[in-house]
Specification:
Blueprint lengths: L2 H25 L2 H5 L2 H51 L6 H24 L6 H15 L6 H29 L4 H17 L8 H26 L11 H12 L6
Length: 257
């Protein structure tokens, strides 16, 4: 979600909440609402705690998802770098070819796949490059014990690279189920709307309280929406790990490119 759109929604939510209170105050006298303050306060305490717990759990869930997606991205870049450096010790021209494929894969992920992930898609070229890299490594025929050790390590890194890629793409596609958004939004509306039942002598104080509550809830929902898809919107995970890999590949003395 774009930050400008989110802030606009937050502002509209606060205005609607305040306007709603003004309408209720005009339609229902304060004295009439004050008669139910004790009962309404007890019910609102339960309602508020229940919604706060739900909203807090959703915030934790999307943050953990964001953190896991970022860790997966770093793991994928690390495995890619490991294959690149191991390839330097392989017989030529096989080692050089593997390094070329590794760098091509990193470049495609940064330049092509990252923008596609913002739309919940992946890059066919990245898949093709990974398959070509897998074929090049599986086609190696180590002849010495040292080469066999390097080959085994590269196979493990290749396996982890594929797993990390799939996890990254799943994180880009999957968000909170729609039913949870219905519960979150409807719960927020009910939580704010319930405050209209209270009767306060000072109208300004009541308006400030309702506006503040609507602001906190709408900002929390905006945060959940912004973190729900880690690779979309203005707030997203950047391909810094892959960019660092490309920079190191270019500068490293272990590069045969």
């Amino acid at each position: 979600m774009r930050i400008s759109t989110g802030l606009l929604i937050v502002a509209v939510a606060v205005v609607v909440a305040v306007v709603g209170l003004v309408l209720v105050q005009r339609l229902v006298p304060t004295e009439r609402r004050k008669q139910h303050n004790d009962v309404a306060g007890f019910i609102y305490a339960v309602l508020g705690v229940a919604y706060a717990v739900l909203l807090g759990l959703m915030l934790i869930a999307v943050w953990e998802k964001w953190d896991a997606a970022e860790a997966t991205t770093t793991d994928e870049a690390n495995e890619l770098a490991g294959i690149f450096y191991w390839a330097h010790a392989l017989p030529q021209p096989e080692g050089r070819h593997i390094q070329e494929l590794v760098r091509s894969y990193a470049r495609v992920v940064v330049e092509e796949e990252w923008p596609l992930m913002a739309k919940g898609r992946s890059s066919p070229q990245a898949w093709d490059t990974l398959d070509e890299l897998r074929g090049a490594i599986l086609g190696l025929e180590p002849t010495t014990g040292a080469q066999q050790a390097r080959y085994t390590e590269m196979l493990a890194q290749l396996h982890d690279l594929g797993n990390a890629r799939r996890e990254r793409l799943l994180a880009a596609e999957q968000g909170l189920p729609p039913i949870l958004w219905v519960v979150l939004i409807l719960g927020g509306v009910i939580t704010v709307g319930f405050t209209y039942l209270f009767g306060l002598q000072n109208t300004l104080v009541h308006l400030i309280m309702v506006g503040s509550l609507a602001l906190v809830i709408s900002m929390s929902l905006f945060t959940v929406a912004a973190l729900d898809y880690p690779f979309q919107g203005d707030i997203h995970i950047h391909p810094s790990a892959y960019e660092n890999d490309l920079e190191r590949f270019h500068e490293s003395k272990l590069s045969d490119l």
